[in-house]
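Example complex used in Figure S2.
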Amino acid sequence: MAVVAGVDVGGTNITAARVEGGVITARDKRPTPHEGPEAVRDAVAELVRGLGEVDAVGVGVPGPVGRDGVVHGTANLGGFEEPSPIGSLISDALDGVPVGVGNDANLGALGEVRHGGGEGSRFLLAVWLGTGVGGGLVLDGEPYVGAFGGAGEVGHMVAVPQGAECGCGRRGCLEAYAGRAGMERAARLAAANGEQTRLIKAGKEDQPIKSGRWAKAIAKGDPLANRLLEDAVRALGHTLGSLINLLDVDTIVFGGGLTEKLGQPLIDRIAEATHPVVMLPRKHRRMVEATLGDDAGVLGAAEYALAFRR
Amino acid sequence: MAVVAGVDVGGTNITAARVEGGVITARDKRPTPHEGPEAVRDAVAELVRGLGEVDAVGVGVPGPVGRDGVVHGTANLGGFEEPSPIGSLISDALDGVPVGVGNDANLGALGEVRHGGGEGSRFLLAVWLGTGVGGGLVLDGEPYVGAFGGAGEVGHMVAVPQGAECGCGRRGCLEAYAGRAGMERAARLAAANGEQTRLIKAGKEDQPIKSGRWAKAIAKGDPLANRLLEDAVRALGHTLGSLINLLDVDTIVFGGGLTEKLGQPLIDRIAEATHPVVMLPRKHRRMVEATLGDDAGVLGAAEYALAFRR
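Predicted assembly (620 residues):
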């Protein structure tokens, strides 16, 4: 059986796992260096060496990646402003072990379709509802990266023309409504205008509003929290409904912190919000929860590695 | 060299062409019957027989089609409310000649990518600006139909949440703003409210507003025509920008009556309207005019037929 390494390069940590037949048999992690591609190469190579001999390595990074393993600039890693051939850098550092590099959201989608909530799907969208809104596509069974490696940016589809400002500097992106950072901006603005809410605690105004706090406020009927969640659901409904009309996927898998806290009831609300938009309703189209949690990244990267074995 | 037939089943006419090496060597057409699948089968079979011996047949139909050649209901052909295996019906009528059936907008996109304005592209969207707004996708060089054959409905992506009513019964679809029927509805409403416009001629109020009339009114600076075109361009900008973020296509080809009359200047305006939305601007991404005109359908269907040869 092939032994591969799956590596998930996040903004905070790099996680690496040895994977055999879709099962993690060893893992390690370390903080992500932000001094540029060579520093990331060294950290990844050391982690992989620590896992023992592997046939191939898959690496997920938070940015657009071409099929040649070149990262086309990402603001999530320091020193990656210019295109960087991180795949060949890592392969060289590992004495030529084959390395496949992909976008982390896309590889997470691949993990979920092969071993998680999307099993059995051939046309899948994964939506990660976290600080931002990430997206990954698996079309006809294979990760879809597009012409220049930038595909899957469902979070930056326009949900509301000329709408709320997004962290990316554009306006009206889905992420501005359904990403935790955007929801928090809206909550703080409302609170500054005098609206009462459980989302912001007296004496702890500066603390970030985590998914657990959102879930608790929503459960207790907090009007502001519920209104902002409703905005998020509406934005998701329009955008994912449009996406279904365009791509006719059979499955949408939802992951990320907000999904983990709010679960299938949130997904059912989102599904209902797509109905007025979708042209071709299909009883076989599923909207389900991701099941791999934080392991989606390394398992997806490991799956991707399989295609690069010699 | 393979000799194939390309058939374009429209709401008004069925056109069939004999195609050899991407060149049309014979053609014929007749009115589309609306008595159901058997009537369409008979008409297509007779047209194809009239073209002489062929190795395979490709057929484009105005509706969602699975890769098995089953049409999943279309309002554009009479008697097609239920799923209909039109591919095997036609093949049986032609003594077993292989038949491939696809959505007409998708096959038009395939025609443009192999022999038209999209030549050289591997990731292409074709947008047909006609009475409605049709869309066809070619991803990684192959027609993309999705899980259930319904992909490509760019005209029914949401351009404006809760916006103008669309011919499909939904609200805010791109087609409601950028399709000629939707633009005409808006023009008639404005005229009924007393707005002056060259779009509607005294004594000829009931005549449909064709693309030529739109082009003339716009050229003469008609305020209403220009405002509605601006609305169309803005809706196209948001929607196609979102689509680029999702699919990272390298080429968008524009066809249809409105494009033919307004040409590259219209396309350049649409391209500019996508810029505020697009995350990954690429100098290699092209937005160009379709070049095959009405032949895109039969040439694309003929290309599709090639994959079904025995």
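Chain B has a mean pLDDT of 94. Residues 120-289 of chain B form a domain with the Nucleotidyltransferase; domain 5 fold (CATH 3.30.420.40).
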